[in-house]
Amino acid sequence: MPVTKKQLSGKRVVFGVGGSIAAYKAILLLRRLTDLGADVEVVMTTSACEFITPLTFQTLSGHPVHTNTFNPDDNMAHLRLAENADLILVSPATANLIGRFAQGMADDLLSTIILASHAPLLVVPAMDGGMWQHPLVQQNVKTLRETGVEILDPEFGSLASGHIGWGRFPSEEAIMSSIISLLTMPGDYHDEVVLITAGPTHEAIDPVRYIANRSSGKMGYALAQAAQKRGAQMVLVTGPTSLTPPPGIHTISVTTAEEMRDAVHKHFERATVVIMAAAVADYRPDQPAKTKLKKQGREQVSLALSPTPDILTSLSAQKSGQFMVGFAAETEHLIEEATRKLKAKGLDMIVANDVTKPGAGFGSDTNAAVVLDAHGLVADLPLMPKREMATKLLDLIRIRLNQQK
Ligand code: PMT
After folding, report:
1. Which residue owns the Cα nearest ligand 1 atom 34?
2. Do 12-183 and 193-285+303-404 have matching folds?
3. Is domain 193-285+303-404 annotated with CATH 3.40.50.10300?
4. How many alpha carbons lie under 13 Å from residue 74 in its C-beta half-sphere?
5. Ligand 1 atom with least separation from CA of 279
6. Rounded distance, CA 368 to CA 357, Å?
7. Which residues line ligand 1 (CB under 6 A)?
8. What is the dihedral of CA 21, 25, 29, 31, to 10 degrees?
9. Closest by alpha carbon to 90, among 153, 38, 183, 15?
C-alpha cells in the first residue's frame, strides 16, 4: 500500500511548555502533532517540570526534552532549535512567560530560543481570568501582537481555580487549526516585493507644533506583518507612531509627507505591490516658523497652508506594472469618494473606511471596509481585527495578481 505523506511531514516544531495546570493538555497536542508527521522537540520551563515530567514528552516526541540552557551535552541547543524551527509553539503560556517574552528577556532556554529565532511564534495562554484581564498582561499581549506574535485568546468557562471567567485554555481544535495554518500558510507572496505605508505625517508649524491626524499606524503595520508571513520581501515606510518596528521588516521612518514621498519613490521601481495605508497630510504650513511662535496677545491667528505632494498620483505616473492599492478614510459619501480617489490616483484597488463607524478606522484595533476597483464592489468587509483584515486584503490582492499573470 502506498504511504501517504502526512500533513505536517517535514515540519519542525519547537514546543515550549510553561508551568500551568494546563501543561497536561500539552501532551495531547504533542500527540496530535506527531500523528500529523511533525518533528517536535519539547522545551520545558522549570515550573512546567513541577506539573508534569519530561519523560512523558520525551517518550511521545522521540527526542530528549530540553530543560536547561547550560547542558554540557548540547550546549548549542538554543541556536540549533532556533535556526531549524518552522514554528515555535508555547502552550500553555503563563502570565509570567508572556511578560518575559514581551520584555525581550532571555533568562532561560525557551525565552533565549524565541529571541534567537525568526520562526513564527504561536502563544497559547492559560491562566486565571483575573490575571488574563489584568492591564499589565493585556499590555504585554498587545506588545507581542504588535511585533507579529500570534496569541490565541483564552476561552470563557470554568477555570482550575473554581471560578468562571476568561482564561480557559483554548480548545485543542482551535490550537491545532492555528498551528496547521501557520505551518502550511501559503508562501503566496514569495515572488512579491511589497511596499506599504503606515501612520500619519507631521507637518511643522514651528519647532514645537505640527499638523497631524489620528492614524496610529496599526492598519499598515498589520498589513506589513501579514505580507511578511506570506513570504513577501517587505518595505514599510512609516510616519511617526508609537508602534515597534516589526522584526525582519525593512522599516523606514519618516515625518513629513515630502519625506514619505521620497522614501516611497526610492523603493517604488523594484516593488510589485504598493499599499498606501498611511494618512498623509493633505496640507502643510506654507512657511514653518524657525522659532516658536509667540501668543503676542492676538485674538485670532491664521495659518497659510499649501498642498502636500500627492504620493499615489506621482507614483501612478511612473507605474511599470506595480499593483497599486490606496485607502480612503471617509466620514460621508463613502463609495462616491472612494471611487473618485480610485480614478483620480490611478489605483487598481481602494479600501474605503467609514471612519464614523464605531471601531473602524483611526486608532482602533479593528476596522471595517468596502473594497472597490474599476468594476465596482470587490468585497464588503465587516468589523474585524486589523490583523484579520490585513489577511483578507492580501487574499483579494493575490487573486488580482494571479489574474494579471
Ligand atoms: O493607522 P490606523 O490608526 O490603523 O488607521 C488606519 C487608517 C484609517 C489611517 C487607514 O485605514 C486609512 O484609511 N488610510 C487612508 C487615510 C486617508 O485619509 O486617506 P485619504 O483619503 O486622505 O487619501 C487617499 C489615499 O491617498 C491614501 O491611500 C493616502 O495614503 C494617499 N495619499 C493621501 C494624501 C497624499 N498627499 N498622498 C497620498 O498618496
Report:
1. 280
2. yes
3. yes
4. 13
5. 16
6. 8
7. 199, 215-219, 257, 276-280, 282, 308, 310-312, 326-329, 341, 345, 353, 361-363
8. 120
9. 15
Residue-wise pLDDT tens for the chain (405 aa)? 455 669 999 999 999 999 999 999 999 999 999 999 999 999 999 999 999 999 999 999 999 999 988 888 777 888 899 999 999 999 999 999 999 999 999 999 999 999 999 899 999 999 888 899 999 999 999 999 888 899 999 888 887 777 888 878 899 999 999 999 889 877 899 999 999 999 999 999 999 999 999 999 999 999 999 999 899 999 999 999 999 888 889 999 999 999 999 999 999 999 999 999 999 999 999 999 999 998 877 778 889 999 999 999 999 999 999 999 999 999 999 999 999 999 999 999 999 999 999 999 999 999 999 999 999 999 999 999 998 999 999 999 999 999 887
Q: What atom in ligand 1 is closest to the CA of residue 198?
A: 1
12-183: CATH topology is: Rossmann fold (3.40.50)
Residue extents of the structural domains in the chain: 12-183, 193-285+303-404
**DSSP one-letter code for 296:** T
Q: Whose CA is nearest to atom 24 of ligand 1?
A: 328
Beta 12-17 vs 273-276: how paired, if at all?
unpaired
Q: Cell 520551563 belongs to which residue?
A: 45
Distance CA 272, CA 194 (A): 6
Atom 21, ligand 1: residue with shortest CA distance: 328
Ligand 1 pocket check: which of 324, 327, 366 to mutate, most ligand atoms within 8 Å of Cβ? 327
Helix ranges restricted to H, 75-134: 77-84, 95-102, 109-116, 129-133
CA of 277, closest atom in ligand 1: 14
Look at ligand 1, atom 36, and give the residue with the nearest C-alpha. Answer: 310
Residues marked as catalytic = 213
